[in-house]
Each structure stands twice: as C-alpha cells, then as structure tokens.
Amino acid sequence: MLKLPSWLAVPLALPVATAVPGPAEAVLASGLRATNLRCEYRVNPLGVDTPRPRLSWVLESERRGEVQTAYRVLVASDAETLAKGQGDLWDSGKVASARSAQVEYAGRPLAAGQRVFWKVRLWGREDAPSPWSAPAYWQTGLPTPADWHGEWISADEAAEPGFAAILLRKTFQLAKPVVRATASVCGLGYHELFLNGQRIGDHQLDPGFTRYDRRLLYVTHDVTGALRPGENALGVRLGGGWYRLATPDLFGFQAAPWTAPPKLLLQLDLVHADGTTSRVVSDRSWKWATGEITFNCVRGGETHDLRLARPGWTSPAYADADWHAVVVQPPLASPSSEKVGEPN
Fold first, then answer.
1. What is the pTM of this model?
2. Is residue 13 part of a domain?
3. Which structural domain range is residue 58 located in?
C-alpha cells in the first residue's frame, strides 16, 4: 500500500458558513447615534419664544462614510413620558431625510413657561434605527404681554439718585417645596440678579442692546437651587447701560429718544411639588436704595464709595426699614427673549 510522505498530510481547509450581519447588528457595529441635541442653536435653552422652535443634532458613527437616511423625534410633556418612548406633544414618525438642523417642531401648541423634553433616533445606510439619543429639553418663554404679570418699577427720581446704581429687593415666603423655579428678568439698561445672597448666572451686561423704544430683551434663569424653605430674598442691581448715558456720546446716545431712569420687569415662576404653581413679580411691594456705586456710565466708567456699601442687602435677614418704596412706571413694550450669543 502506497504511503504518502508526512509532509503531504496537510489538513484540508473547508469553507465554513458565517452569519451575515443584519441591519440592526450593522447599526450597533457602526455606533450610529445622535448627539449634541440643540433647540434654537442652544443646549437645553430657557425662554424660547418662537412657537415652532428649530431642533438640531449631530450624527456620530464609528464607521467612516456613515450617513443619516431618516430620523424620528419625540417630544413629551415630562421626562417620564419620554422615557416610555411616548411623544404626547409630538411624534414625528419616521421621516426619510438627511436633515439634522433646523427641524421645526410641529406638535401641539405649548403654553408660556412650559418645559418639554425630547429625543431623537436615526436611521443609517442599513435602514435600521439607532438607539435613542440622551434626552434634552427646552422651556418656552413669555412671548406675549399677557404672559407677564409684573409691573415696571424704578427708583423715585424725586429722591435724586442721580446716576448711582439702583438696588432693588423683595422678600417672600415659600410654604411648599419647589421643584422648578424660573426667573425672567428685563432690567434696563443693565442688571444683575441675586437670590438669597447668591449671584444668579455668569452673564455680564444683560440684557443686550436694542433700540429700547422699539424692542426690549429679557433673560431667563433656572433658580431652583438658590431657593430655600421659608423666607427668601430677591435682589436686582440696575445700571444705566445704553438706556441712560450720563456723559455726552459721539453718537448722541445721551439724548436718545428712549433715554430714561433705569427700571425693572421681573417674574419668578414657581412649580411646587404638589403640582400647583405660584409667582413672585415686580410690583409696588419692592423697595429700593443706592449703594457704593455712586456713578455709572458705559462711557464714563464707575465711581465706588465703599463707605456706602450695604453688606448682605440680597439676603433675607437684611434690615431694609430705611429703604424707599419703588415707583410703578407705565408699561413699556413687551420684552422678547434674548436668543443669540453666549454670556458677555
């Protein structure tokens, strides 16, 4: 019997059947996902005035050359509903489109000050859905005069505050826990907001400059974390800004048709743990005084006299018996939300 040499005894390689990945497996392998969700070009914005805000996201994938072929957006009235995969405000359904920017909200009308939650999933080249994105949210603003419940208030010019910065404060009681608190502020010309001794936000030179006799801007802050049970104190510092110049200006802004003493419109909307709501607004119950900033002007700078400082004036325990009653001013144009740009 013929015996083959050992070097010819080579194992025979036979073809082995392998599973072809389906669309879902291909999507998982590619890592297709939507990230960086934005509404009106901002991350989780507050004070969105437009009734049909524009949504956007960024497509990410581990695979080179991946493309978005479709999307589905869910918008819900609360985070729990969204987590269940339900869009009680808007379910776009699967939309065959590569668009990932300026996708207009097309759901149910939203109320002023309403916070809504949304997420998106995508389809790629294999026509299988990606996982849902991380949730995001936006909160509507106060787009009409009827949404504002406060009054414009100012110092009493008869007390001759001149061009000093104006300090305004109000104390209020919280008898029930608060789950969300939103402060909407228009302080002309510039303002700084304080709550219980804490400076709110990192903005400088708010609100942005406009033709104040035609358009006003307001700024929205989530101040939930600054509240405390019992007595609380709101404080606002007002400067003249471009609303009231103290020194002559090359362009004549000191004589602009809108020039007037600084004034404030504020609304603090509170949502309580039991589902009820309440609000604190600017009205005649506020008080005013001046402090260490005895002169302020965007052209002429500031003068500080630290002997006149009022330590603790933004805290609830501060004694304000010597402060003056504010003056309620005639209504101005309804402010619109400050939408563009990062804090100055």
1. 0.86
2. no
3. 23-139
